């Protein structure tokens, strides 16, 4: 199944031979998807642990607030479900850093989950991100209004997450977060009930739907 994040980005920007930094790359799945389209991708994490390997992807340690890149050195900066994990007080700095490293007419692409959605309703038992997601969307829009960057596009669309069973869901959402794992024992029963209430069956899998918003900007 095609990645909707990649489909939206490809409709706006030709990735072939572009220098890209994926900020908060996680396991590197999206970095690898961009590399498969011909991009040269720096996958950035504070403490990178390379779990995927593909030509065109290199792993580096760093944070959104202090990108380890020279001025005007990349064509695209991506935040895919990662900006809301940056402290709210550092959003301005993180977005300024993105502008600093972008070449003239470079692109900034940000995708953030919406406050509501099936995935959110189940996840909130171990992490309620309502406030931080609302604040992140506001900070993105405020930054666009104040800065010299040009807003080219914003759209809301839906992504789906597929799981074989509830245990697969638990492994995925707690594997990246010790804080979530610590909360799980006390909420496991309620979380499982919510999972089966919101999940849909499709081709033998259980899926959770999640709306998200993408913003796409061009530097001066």
Plain-language structure description:
The chain has 220 residues and is an alpha/beta fold. The model has no long low-confidence stretch (mean pLDDT 94). Helix 6 (166-175) packs antiparallel against helix 7. The radius of gyration is 17 Å and the shape is globular. Strand 4, helix 3 and strand 5 form a beta-alpha-beta unit. It has helices spanning 4-12, 29-36, 91-101, 118-123, 130-146, 166-175, 178-198, and strands at 19-23, 40-45, 57-61, 74-80, 102-113, 150-163, 200-202, 205-218. The chain has one domain (4-116, 127-160, 212-218): Vaccinia Virus protein VP39 (Rossmann fold, 3-Layer(aba) Sandwich), CATH 3.40.50.150. It starts with a helix and ends with a strand. Strands 1, 2, 3, 4, 5, 6, 7 and 8 form an 8-stranded mixed sheet that branches. The protein contains 7 helices and 8 strands, in the order H-E-H-E-E-E-H-E-H-H-E-H-H-E-E. The longest helix has 21 residues, at 178-198.
